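Researcher: Good morning. I'm working through a list of sequences from a screen, and I'd like to move beyond sequence-only analysis. For each chain I'm collecting a predicted structure so we can compare shapes side by side. This is the next one on the list. No need for commentary yet; just the structure.
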Amino acid sequence: MGGERKRTGVRAATESSISIDFTYNGIRCKERLKLKPTAANLKRAEQHRAAILHAIERGTFDYAVTFPDSPRRFKFIAKPGAQYLLSEYLETWVEGHCKHLKASSLDDYKKIVYNTLIPAFGEYALPDLRRPHVREWCDLQTAGNKRLANVQSVLRKALQDALDDDLIESNPLFGWTYSKKAPPKRSDDIDPFSVEEREAILRSCRDPQHKNLFQFAFWTGLRTSELVGLEWGDIDWIRGIVRIERALTQASDEPEDPKTVRSARDVKLLPAAIDALKAQKQHSFIAGSSVFLNPRTKERWSGDQPIRHGAWVPALRLAGVRYRWPYQTRHTYASMMLSAGEPPIWVAQQMGHSDLAMIFRRYARWMPDVAPDAGMKAAELFDKKVAEKWPKHAQK
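Model: Good morning. Structure tokens for this chain:
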């Protein structure tokens, strides 16, 4: 009969890979070959699988040699008593996440794996790492709880994936996080700029494009990555809004999706923000792509660091304004809106917060008292002195 011959244990997995499966030591194994599933490559994969089955039958098959990048290789130790080190597993694990994480997140993972986890725990055999090992290491660190939590989070996820792949019997970090007993913080990191400081910063910008960027930041509350990723096509001049649907960080070469689902949003353009855009038109509008450019390179800013060192720090120094990092423009926007009495739910939507809890938790002190007479009804009813002073209220 006509038609394509059916291949046992070999199939096209994606447009660029072929999946083969076989049984080894009583365990069904599936691996992918980085080959386009053409007829010729499918035949090659079939031959490769046949060679694997032959090696298994003869007792010469070495999983780690045949599939050196596969996490499953840790299941099958070629030499009795041998153990794969945690460093080997972590390297394979983090590289395997390249296709599943945004560039910025992957960069953070790699820094933690290569700069922290492997130096600290790499010499342990994968099944031998225990919670006390992590606790002892954390006890010696001077970093704060947030940094330690980030490190443990990556290690916990790596170990959970190892557990899911049957490489270890349990995840020692499951349901547990080390944290130091730290004194209460004196204050949070919110330190907005005053009206005088904002004006001084804008006057002190060395280039008009720097001024346009910072004025827009003060009056929209956008994150630095969102400012960098902004394009002229995102501006709706008729409706007076800007659509936030991409962000560009230092670690990524191309714009990515915003930080969270709520981060993709429409932000109302207030007059000062519109003025900044109109002033910026002469510098980048004709090109039709990025709104804000690095005047030195004539191209899109490559991230927050060039903005900080090339524009932000010089402006603050010249203005004589106490240094705060550029993200404080976002906090400044929130404090301005709330101090003016704008609805907190509207501010949360403008800033891309997931709910009102963030607004109340972080910016409550800038909110005017929405009910200045709150409590007076009870006082008028049950406090004789108050009732005598406001007899009409007491009679209600």
